[in-house]
Every structure is written in structure tokens, then in C-alpha cells.
């Protein structure tokens, strides 16, 4: 059985930058000092018997330290990652401006082999970024989520 994950992609329209998306920089020593392909949608794994929408909301709250904003969410799709994990993504247009990011943490022996376990935030920061910039920041397996969002927005808008 493959690993499943669910996440939320918030977007907003900015007259100067076009579509902007809310993404998060992954925490921990592996991602420290990296920018390109070191960002992700707020997301996390869930059990086979769990509703992916409920999991997406739970994971967003855990990683951001605040609930996902009230908005008209829609299921954007399921995206297979290079690892084989499948991420179900829900998207919504929303303004979101938390005062701070307070992510949950994970334990990791660091430095490796030291016997010392430290706790690191899953997410160390998050920000609105242009859709074009997000393509260079997101881990490569999540870039198709941006394509799906743009396709959805073009379809929803209808012919010119």
C-alpha cells in the first residue's frame, strides 16, 4: 500500500505578481541553508481510513500553528511524488496572514551518530510567493500542483 498525504494550497491574486501561493520551507538540519526545491505545501500523511480533507486541515494547523482560513476549498487532485507517495491537494483562494508560524516538531538524532536527540520544527517559515518563484522553491514533485491550479483557474474563468 502506498503512503498517502493530504495538503492545502492557498492562493491569492496580486495585481503585480499574478497568482501567489502560500508555501512553507521545510525545517530541520537537512533543509537548513537550502532554498531551491526546499519548500512544500503544508501537508502530511494520513491513515487509509481517514478523510483526506480532515487530514489536510489537521496538517495545515499543525504546521502553521493556526487553522486553515475559512474559504471555498476544492479538491485540486492527487499527485504522485517521485518517492511513490500520493498527495491529495485541496486549494482555495484566501487571504492568510498569521502573526507567526508555530510548527509542530519532530525528533532527530543530530548530529548523526552523536546519540543526542534534538527536536526540529517541521516548517521553519512560510510565505506568499509568486507562482513562477514557487516553481523554483517547491520540491520538484509538487510543481505539477501549480500546473493543475493554473489549469483549474483558467477553466473556472471560462472563455474570454
Task: Describe the model.
With 160 residues, the protein is an alpha+beta fold. It has one domain: Alpha-Beta Complex (Nucleoside Triphosphate Pyrophosphohydrolase), CATH 3.90.79.10. The protein contains three helices and nine strands. The strands form two sheets. Strands 1, 2, 3, 4, 5, 6 and 9 form a seven-stranded mixed beta sheet that branches. Strands 7-8 form a two-stranded antiparallel ribbon. The protein is globular, with a radius of gyration of 16 Å.
Distance between the termini: 44 Å
User: What is the CATH third-level topology name?
Assistant: Nucleoside Triphosphate Pyrophosphohydrolase
The proportion of residues forming helix, as a percent range, comes to: 10-25%
Total strands: the figure is 9
Alpha carbon gyration radius:
16 Å
Per CATH, the architecture is: Alpha-Beta Complex
> Quick one: biggest sheet?
7 strands, mixed
Secondary structure class reads: alpha+beta
Name of the CATH class? Alpha Beta
Oligomer: single chain
Mean pLDDT: 94
Count of separate structural domains = 1
Strand content: 35-45%
Poorly predicted runs are none
Q: Compute the number of helices.
A: 3
